[in-house]
Amino acid sequence: SVAVALWSSGPVSSDLLVGDFESTIIGRCKAYLAKNKEDSSKNDCEEVWKAFSGAYLGKDPCEVSVEAYDPLMRAVSERPACDRMLFWSKTRDFVHDFTAKTKCQLTLEDTLLGYMMNDQTYWCSEKGSSVTFTEKGKCPGWDECERNPMKSFWKRASAAFAESACGDVAVMLNGSIDTPFAPDSIFASVEVKKFHSPKMKALKVVLVTKGKDDKANCKNKSLQNLKDALDPRLSYECLEVPQSKIIDCTSHPDKACGNCW
Ligand code: APR
């Protein structure tokens, strides 16, 4: 099913009172399922919330492992969208604008878990507590400690999304930076390692270019590293695609499936 993105929905987490976070997450879960009916029967949003919050409640906010979200992954079930999966790194807003407009390719944030947690910057608890905090000052930042609830969640959800990758897969990378395939990104450190043939067939790099200030092309050293890190049975292709061409393509959404690059 094609996920319909509602990127503007939901207040930012710092505005939330304790308890509102739970209703925001459950509300997003229900809204997603209402729009993606085929998957509704298998997912129960209250159960999903319990499994999600169980990963971090009562724990030190720097001691939440990636595996702590395993029960959450078991509580959620979605059919993979073969040939339409789109990965990304350093192109977040552009890629989501693209998938929201074309409703053709799907990113992690167009699936149930990604949709639920997209834009939720902070959530954590503390040792022995049953309360969720969503304030910046209360929860560690993304790089403050490795095992924080947010980073562990995105690593776990990204691993599952990449494990389910099937058919022809694309990744949108940023040609305006020196290292489009950054070793410490989730795409490089988690997702690429989960891509496997024969379920998955090919990876197409869409290197989004802007023109005169571009720092990278398909010959970039980091993209060579990407090719080397891939399962050798997968075919690999890199395309330099002007941003303007992709934007132009989104204004003709019916033609966008596979025709934007
Ligand atoms: N501080 C806060 N948030 C961060 C930071 C940071 N230092 N680094 C990354 N993030 C969060 C932000 O929300 C950011 O938009 O991770 C997001 C993606 O970071 P990128 O480096 O642009 O990309 P990457 O790490 O490769 O993650 C994207 O993983 O989520 C999956 O399927 C998705 O393919 C995609 C990839």
Textual characterization of the structure:
The protein has 261 residues and is an alpha/beta fold. Helix content is 33%, strand content 11%. A four-stranded parallel β-sheet has the order 1-2-3-4. Helix 7 (186-191) links the parallel strand 2 and strand 3. The longest helix has 16 residues, at 20-35. It is globular, with a radius of gyration of 19 Å. Adenosine-5-diphosphoribose binds at residues 87-90, 92, 107-108, 142-143, 154, 158, 161, 185-187, 191.
Topology:
Blueprint: H1 20-35, H2 45-54, H3 70-75, E1 86-89, H4 92-102, H5 112-117, H6 149-163, E2 167-174, H7 186-191, E3 200-209, H8 221-229, E4 235-242, H9 243-250
Parallel strand pairs: 1-2, 2-3, 3-4
Helix pairs in contact: 1-2
Bound molecules: adenosine-5-diphosphoribose (APR).
Strand tally is 4
Order of helices and strands: HHHEHHHEHEHEH
Instruction: Report low-confidence residues grouped into runs of 5 or more.
Output: 1-16
Rg from C-alpha positions?
A: 19 Å
Report strand %. 5-15%
Overall shape: it is: globular
Q: How are the strands of the largest sheet arranged?
A: 1-2-3-4
Q: What small molecules does this complex bind?
A: adenosine-5-diphosphoribose
**Average pLDDT rating:** 91
Structural class: alpha/beta
Span between termini: 23 Å
Helix content class: 25-40%
